[in-house]
């Protein structure tokens, strides 16, 4: 019978700014289980002024976890899935996302961002978050409807890759920063190590495509995830499904190459799920697919292609 687990953020359950195959798992689950994962976001320099709530996990992690690369994302995990082996795929369904506190943050960082040539000063702002209304109030008084998701979700990289920064997204997932991967999304990740070893963090209360100044509304989130193992389902890159769309991802330092990856992955997916040829799916994408920029600020840039299931299968099929 499937079990629901809770994994709170703490110095014992978080790793900071890195992915590696040898980070020991902090929880073992079975395929079909659900895990409620608490994630926090940001180092001591982003903590808000008095008047906001700061969960105790911040002080614990800041005091006792050392980021090997000096910073990056605070990630909760890894979670080991029993029976997972290299060459399998791990399906992660985002069942629910709750705000973890009443504030988020955004900063401009010198020498970073899409327009690093134009903005040279560090600038941090805090955004008040209202969980009841699911809105965020910007410092200049505008309320924005929130659409939370986890910017970083991924399995562990192959052992030969060593320890990697959490900043760059790669074949195992990681810092995908694709705003479509919110509640209801099913994301399929390649498995490169025994147990898969899934981690999540980098909560975003709201993000635009591109994430152009480096940050979204970064926030503590608590996500409810369901895990399902697919034996022998070898993947080159993660992909996702929602109730209405297929989503394929491309990751490369060259945005042109990232878009080509995302397109090729969608052509492969579309042809595998229908009797259409690659040429048919390529034409369909030009007619009604959406090619979008996920982010341009993580060194390895991200693109994604969205194709409505109804456009691929007809009105009656998914």
SSE order and pairing:
Elements: E1 4-7, E2 14-16, E3 18-19, E4 27-29, E5 34-39, H1 56-64, E6 74-81, E7 89-108, E8 123-130, E9 135-137, E10 143-145, E11 149-154, E12 164-165, E13 173-175, E14 186-190, E15 198-206, E16 217-230, E17 239-241, E18 245-252, H2 255-272, H3 278-288, E19 290-295, E20 301-308, H4 309-313
Parallel strand pairs: 1-5, 4-6
Antiparallel strand pairs: 2-6, 3-12, 5-16, 6-15, 7-8, 7-14, 7-16, 8-9, 9-10, 11-13, 11-15, 14-17, 15-16, 17-18, 18-20, 19-20
Helix pairs in contact: 2-3
Protein model, in words:
The chain is mostly beta strands. It has four helices and 20 strands. The strands form two sheets. It has an 18-stranded mixed beta sheet that branches. It has a two-stranded antiparallel sheet with strand order 3-12. Helix 2 crosses helix 3. The protein is globular, with a radius of gyration of 19 Å.
What is this structure, in a nutshell?
The chain is mainly beta. The protein is built from four helices and 20 strands. A hairpin with a 3-residue loop joins β17 and β18 (245-252).
Which overall shape is indicated by the principal axes computed on the Cα atoms?
globular
In the CATH hierarchy, what is the class of the largest domain? Mainly Beta
Q: What number of domains?
A: 2
At the third CATH level, what is the topology name of the largest domain? Jelly Rolls
Identify the notable features of this structure and list them briefly:
318 residues; mainly beta; Endonuclease I-creI; 2 domains; 18-stranded mixed sheet; 4 helices; 20 strands
């Amino acid at each position: 019978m499937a079990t629901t687990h809770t994994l709170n953020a703490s110095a014992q359950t978080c790793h900071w700014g890195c992915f590696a195959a040898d980070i020991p798992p902090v929880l073992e689950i079975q395929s079909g289980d659900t895990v409620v994962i608490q994630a926090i976001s940001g180092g001591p320099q982003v903590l808000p002024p008095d008047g906001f709530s700061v969960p105790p996990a911040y002080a614990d992690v800041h005091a006792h976890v050392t980021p090997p690369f000096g910073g990056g994302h605070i990630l909760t995990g890894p979670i080991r899935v029993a029976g997972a082996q290299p060459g399998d795929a791990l399906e992660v369904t985002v069942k629910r996302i709750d705000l973890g506190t009443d504030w988020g943050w955004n900063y401009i960082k010198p020498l970073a961002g899409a327009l690093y040539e134009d903005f040279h000063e560090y600038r941090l702002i805090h955004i008040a978050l209202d969980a009841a209304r699911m809105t965020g109030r910007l410092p200049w008084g505008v309320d924005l409807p929130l659409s939370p998701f986890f910017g970083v979700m991924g399995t562990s990289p192959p052992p030969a890759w060593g320890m990697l920064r959490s900043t760059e997204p790669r074949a195992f997932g990681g810092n995908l920063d694709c705003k479509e991967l919110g509640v209801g999304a099913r994301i399929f990740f390649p498995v490169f190590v025994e147990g898969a070893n899934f981690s999540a963090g980098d909560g975003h209360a709201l993000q635009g495509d591109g994430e152009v100044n480096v940050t979204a509304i970064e926030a503590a989130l608590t996500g409810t995830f369901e895990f399902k193992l697919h034996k022998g389902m070898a993947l080159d890159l993660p992909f996702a499904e929602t109730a209405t769309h297929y989503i394929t991802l491309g990751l490369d330092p060259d945005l042109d190459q990232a878009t080509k990856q995302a397109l090729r992955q969608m052509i492969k997916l579309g042809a595998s799920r229908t009797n259409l040829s690659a040429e048919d799916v390529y034409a369909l994408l030009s007619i009604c697919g959406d090619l979008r920029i996920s982010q341009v600020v993580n060194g390895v840039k991200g693109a994604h292609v969205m194709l409505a299931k109804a456009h691929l299968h007809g009105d009656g099929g998914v």
